[in-house]
Amino acid sequence: MSSQTKAIINSKIQYKSPSNIAFIKYWGKRHRQLPMNASLSMTLTHCHTITEVEFVYSENGFYLNQFFLDDILNLKFKNRAENFIDSIKDEIPFVNKYKLNIRTTNSFPHSAGIASSASGMSALVMCLLKMEAKLNQTEIDLQKASRLSRLASGSAARSIFPNFVRWGKTADTDNFSEDFAEEIVSLNSFPKLMDTIAIVSKTEKTVSSSHGHSLMNAHPFAEARFKQANDNLKDMLSAMHENDLSLFGEILELEALTLHGLMLSSSPSFVLLEPNSIAIINEIRHFRESSKLPLFFTIDAGPNIHMIYPESIKEEVKPFFENSILPLSLKLIEDIQGTGPELLSEVYE
Ligand code: PMV
Predict the structure, then answer these.
(1) Are strands 98-106 and 63-69 parallel, antiparallel or unpaired?
(2) 20: CA distance to ligand 1 center in Å?
(3) What confidence tier does 201 reach under pLDDT thresholds 50, 70, 90?
(4) I need a surface site. Which of 62, 195, 198, 278 has the fewest CB within 10 A?
(5) Of the candidates 160, 134, 152, 157, the residue with the CA atom closest to the CA atom of residue 15
(6) What SS3 class is residue 264?
């Protein structure tokens, strides 16, 4: 790393970073956010966080001065961000010379099972690493961005990269890392996918994903699950390489229902699905049966249903969404496979 060459007294860096939807689910972790199985996701576009970090030169060392969520001071998120930055100070020593003000806003409801921690934490890390890169006159190291994002929230490791992203190993011997995620470039000939999210509830999750992960430690099905996820990942990758949408969709839905099955069978057990989540699943399956169109679902840690389909059938599925899914939902969010974090603005003084 080159030495710091130019003092910056004040700067504002703004990044937009997307959420991602897991196709193969990360559920269960060890040490500091290392996954018990490999996962695969699609980076989104419209579900994103915009974060601006202001760096003010400070003689008093690092502290987080203010944290605004949607223009309102938020103490809970301030503490979370401050503890996180504190915990990675050795990795970004420049931060010891700054006090920070953070402003962040999500394009979608947070804590409702769309990965707001993935977009939020990756946006924050990109701002931090942009400042580091500016001071060191280098480029952002994306593997480092993914690794540091992972330390804040496992799924955030995947939001750093575009398109289809893998994180973790399916076997000790494979060459992928557990420390950071990477784009699966070989999947770029797979049809471009859309994700229309049926928002079933906007209320905060009753069980945090960290608690959910921890329940996997003593889960009676844990070992079988970790093996199943790794096998599913390999099978899904083969299906995608062979453009086999129907096998892709079968594994996608199995993963979603398995995730919720693990929640239902953990101790204590919990239920995140709502009656309308189940109704939507049934509607999708009936529609697929009758239309023969490749429309599938997946679900994250929440009640909302992500409807996954190739962009090429967008117009054909629209009437189904409007007539059959919207009446069961609060609203629909249309999203599409995306290109990863974007620098929106940078000002240095
Ligand atoms: O990144 P976390 O700790 O919020 O966990 C995410 C867990 C799931 O969203 C359910 C699955 C995944 O791989 O994103």
Answers:
(1) parallel
(2) 10
(3) confident
(4) 278
(5) 160
(6) helix
pLDDT at 113 over 70: no
Which of 110, 125, 155, 299 for a ligand 1 pocket mutation test, highest count of atoms within 8 Å of Cβ?
A: 155
Residue ID of nearest Cα to ligand 1 atom 9: 300
Report the percent of the chain where pLDDT is more than 70: 96
Confidence at residue 185, expressed as pLDDT on a 0 to 100 scale? 96
Residue whose CA is closest, atom 6 of ligand 1? 155
Largest CA distance in the chain: 67
- Ligand 1 atom closest to 301 (CA): 10
Protein residues with CB under 6 Å of any ligand 1 atom: 22, 25-27, 39, 115, 117, 153-155, 209-210, 213, 259, 300-301
Cα-to-centroid distance, 97 and ligand 1 (Å): 33
| Centroid of ligand 1 to alpha carbon of 212 (angstroms) | 9
List of residues 6+ apart from 184 with CB closer than 8 A: 40, 163, 164, 165, 166, 237
Q: How many residues does the chain have?
A: 349
97: left (phi over 0), alpha (psi -120 to 50) or beta: alpha
Ligand 1 atom closest to the Cα of residue 39 is 13
Nearby residues of 112 by Cβ (< 8 Å), 6 or more positions away? 199, 201, 202, 203, 204, 205, 302, 303, 304
Q: How far apart are CA 47 and CA 17, in angstroms?
A: 9
Instruction: Using the atom order of ligand 1, give the atom closest to the CA of residue 113.
Output: 9
Partners of 177 in beta bridges: none
| Higher pLDDT pick, 127 / 3 | 127
Question: Ligand 1 centre from 209 Cα, in Å?
Answer: 7
Q: 184 and 164 in contact (C-beta within 8 Å)? A: yes
pLDDT digit string, tens, across residues 222-248? 999 999 999 999 999 999 999 999 999
For residues 119 and 106, the answer to whether their CB atoms sit within 8 Å is yes
Cα(33) to centroid(ligand 1), Å: 11
Mean pLDDT of 246-273: 97
- The residues facing 194 across adjacent strands are 309, 336
